[in-house]
Amino acid sequence: DQRDLRVITADLSVKCTSKRYKQFLPFDVFMVALWPGGCTIGLAIILFLYRKKLNPTDPGSLETIGEKLFINNQLFARAFRYHARALAEERKLKERSKFTSLSWLHFIFEEYECRCFWFPIFELSRRIFLTSILAVIYPGRMQQVVVGLLATLFSCAMYQFFNPYIKDDDDIVAIVASVQLILIYVAAIAAYVADAADEKQAFYSGTAFGVVLIIILFLSFIVAVFYVLMEVFGYVALQDTIDNISKKSFWGFWHPTSSAQYQQNEQYEQTDSDLEMRPTDLLSNQSSFNNTPMIYPEDNDQIQEENESKTALECGSSVC
Question: pLDDT digit string (tens) for 9-63?
Fold first, then answer.
């Protein structure tokens, strides 16, 4: 019967009801599951076996010192904990580089911080889902785009929360790429709705919408090129170039920014060795923090009364 005819999309000569198709079906299902599931599970096992070397312990961690030194100021305590975690992560990276047994895994974890040694598992799962699994979820329907949008939103939240890369530039590029995908999915939903509503003259059916999509596609590339230039030429030199271009162009009158302020900020920057000495200095001077009396506004009245009493005793009367 022609109405019950089912064939493979890639090869119309192969019927889904044929004996040959049924013989190869178990093998095909196994191989399809082996690639996304097997690679992810295998990578997870490898990273788990080497977890102690990928994320070595740091006995010199100073995460809780800020609470002891700045217990009355949460802002300073939070800043100190962030600084201590950054120093601890740097020490752990140096310790990880000493393990020669990890050389064959270097291409997997070299971009990630020690605390996020497991992030390649998430990255591999994300790519497999968006490129393979998503293709069979409501194919050709708007539900497929919505599922892809939700997965991309979750990925963007993961990048924003963990900041897994060693370089902050890579974290920013990853977040921008996720936002780029989100905008593309939103544009796809808008175009799908406009087509379903038969709005042929809508913005989503014109040339301007195509130009917007092209600009969105180049967002991550533009950000990546900017950080590459900033790394090669330096922030101050790049800012000087932008200033020179702006002064010679028509928008120079409202773009008076100069690199002098950035050069002034560089004078206050310290080297890594100076930063590493700061927690030690604070520990050595911890007694001075504890012995220094802290005066609060509500104690002013009590201090004033004590001063008046001392003055009265010295003069020998209640009023001197």
Answer: 777 778 888 888 888 888 888 888 888 888 899 999 999 999 999 999 876 655 4
Does this model's pTM top 0.85? My answer is no
Amino acid (1-letter code) at residue 21: Y
**DSSP code of 35?**
I
Lowest model confidence (mean pLDDT) among 96-105, 110-119, 222-231, 309-318? 309-318
- In sequence order, the 6+-apart residues with CB closer than 8 A to the CB of 74 are none
Three-state SS at 112: strand
By the 10 Å C-beta count (0-12 exposed, 13-18 middle, 19+ buried), 171 is classed as middle
Q: What DSSP letter does each residue of 191-257 carry, written as one string?
A: HHHHHHTT-TTSGGGSHHHHHHHHHHHTHHHHHHHHHHHHHHH-HHHHHHHHHHHHHHSTTGGG---
Nearest to 154 by CA among 131, 129, 172: 129
Q: Give start and end residues of each alpha helix (H) in the chain.
A: 19-33, 39-49, 51-54, 65-69, 74-96, 106-109, 119-131, 142-162, 168-196, 207-217, 219-233, 235-248, 260-266, 272-284, 286-291, 300-315
Average pLDDT rounded to a whole number, residues 249-272: 46
Single-letter residue type at 185: Y
Q: Which residue has 């206050």 as its token pair?
A: 268
Sequence length of the chain is: 320
At 7 the three-state DSSP class reads strand
* Residue pLDDT, tens place only, 94-106: 999 999 999 999 9
